[in-house]
Design goal:
This protein is mainly α and about 500 residues long. It is about 55% helix and about 5% strand. It has a single domain, classed as Cytochrome P450 (Cytochrome p450, Orthogonal Bundle). The radius of gyration is 25 Å and the shape is globular. The relative contact order is 0.16. The model is unreliable at about 5-20 (pLDDT under 50). InterPro entries: Cyt_P450, Cyt_P450_CS, Cyt_P450_E_grp-I, Cyt_P450_sf, Cytochrome_P450_Monoox. Its cofactor is heme. Belongs to the cytochrome P450 family.
Amino acid sequence: MFTPMSAVLLLSFASFCCLLHFRGKQILETVLSLVLPRVNSGVYRAGKQISGPKWQYPNGSVIERFINGGEVSEQWQKKYGPVYRVWSGTHPEIVITTPEDLKHFSSDANDHPKAPNVNLGWFVEKLLGQAMGLLYGADWKRLRKIFDPAFTHAAAVTRIDGVVSSARKYVEELPQLAVGGPSQNQDSYTIPVQKAFTKFPYFLTAKAIYGPMTQQEEDELWRVTEKRVSLNQYWVGGGIYRFETTARLRDRPAVQRLEEFLREWHDYNVRMVSARRQRGEHPPIITYWEELEAGNISSVELLQTLDELLMLNLDVITHVTTWFITLVASHEHVKRELREEIAANKDTLHEYIASTSTHLHRCFIESMRIRPFGVFTIGESSATTKNFHGVLVKPNTQILVDVLAINVRNPFWGKNSEAFDPSRLKNIKQSDLRYNLHSFGIGSRKCMGQFVAGHIVKSLVAHLFDSFEVEPVEEKGKEGASGGADMGNWTPKSDALLRLTSRESVL
């Protein structure tokens, strides 16, 4: 029998369903923001307690960190203090912002374990879960021993002459990339910095692995790379893509694109190995494949580490290159000193590119200081309790470094810390930079490709500024170059337009 009470209950249930439908996201965020810190705060109650930004649907704080890192970095530190908590899914992660805490965290850096898939879930597992950079301990050491020889400083130095030659040739062909199509005026034209300088460092890095590549091989690699880059949105976005079941149920096309990429990436490397064996060549990819055949590395570990070295790092090296060029182009006194230095070293270019005590190298480091490719580092943890400003962080809790806090807002850098001023690095000891500058990682786990990347980017910059007057183009309604990340491009690369005007070259 339908009674007035039944009507009230039915109406209440309907109202609840409507509220859940229209306000479910807010309710979920509020509930999880209250519950998660009580279930697992990441810190011991015996120490100082911390807070942080509330949990946000669908991924905690991950999207904000990747997409709006430059904006939220300072906001969060001001609001929550030098140590605070963010969330990756339901996992707590502790952010540190001071050189003192970075030094303490780095004391056992060589033994830092990594959380499975760095707390980013199933989609990352399928792409990078067994890549060298996401492993630790014996597995990391095993893979590092296999991959490292091609990327040591000594190995990178042996390739400098080829890198310099490639940079010269690439700069000569820049008119083909002019805005509006190939420029008929070889003396002056405009180029978009991202479009112009994305592929050059990428393919030179690839050649450090595969050796000389045909145009067809480069084209095939780029086609596969574009498919890989299109998958970034899923691991950054998280949510349903954190779990295989929900991803397959809710977005089967995304899973199919993932599986298609994995097949094509495997097949591409099989073809590259076969072609080099037929020609009797022995670049690093052959060594890696021999280790695979000997059972010293799995197919997944090999292919995912190659992905890490190339495709994941495409955003990184493009970011570094575009901001290096944009910042130098925007400062006349820096350009003038750079050209004078290039002219003085034109007969010893190999040594000049390799040197770490030049104005060119200081420009490189200073650009990464004020424009880091990642505002927050990928998390690492310690097997021991860490005391940061009285906050006792539990063992195996992911810890992130706020790179802008270390590199820019740090009192070590003075009042003009946001300015691009390479000369500031002239008289600073390397030991003083250790915990006041975060660029290539910490401990023995520093970025393996740092020497290769450094030589590539410095060679390109030397030839570019020797051959051209390079000036940023002022765009209507826009104040200077900016950099924004999105779900598919996780580093905030420069979006500047540059005017190139030919000048008499000395190289």
